[in-house]
Amino acid sequence: MKSKKEEIAERITKLKSRKEDIMNTGIARKILRTLRNNPRTFSCTGLGKELNITYQHMVKILRRLQERKLITMELNGREFKIHLIEKGVFVADHLIKIEEILKD
Question: Do 44 and 58 meet the contact criterion of CB atoms below 8 Å apart?
Answer without folding.
Answer: yes
